[in-house]
Amino acid sequence: xxxxxxxxxxxxxxxxxxxxxxxxxxxxxxxxxxxxxxxxxxxxxxxxxxxxxxxxxxxxxxxxxxxxxxxxxxxxxxxxxxxxxxxxxxxxxxxxxxxxxxxxxxxxxxxxxxxxxxxxxxxxxxxxx
Length: 129
Hints:
Layout: E1 3-9, H1 15-20, H2 41-45, E2 56-66, H3 67-71, H4 78-91, E3 95-103, E4 115-116, E5 119-126
């Protein structure tokens, strides 16, 4: 089973600052498992040293769109989209300008109330893939 983790909301930072949150350091002489390695903030927030860039989708635009429009990018069933929309309604999220999702069946987010790059964690959901 594959699982997609979704974060969305309104991010007020500039695009460069928003994207720096996900920036992996490939220009270092230090290995990722070395305590000297500087992990990106996303990695720190999900409690890992690195992440697979092929498994993440990151979106930030300069205007607000509906949650439904943002979620069109997520590979989940219609039933799961309804579940996600229900969570958004419960959290008071109607419009967003930023979203990211990460596909990883083993990822466990323990601090679900934390803001990740200014965005709300909605949960992990079964994917269509």
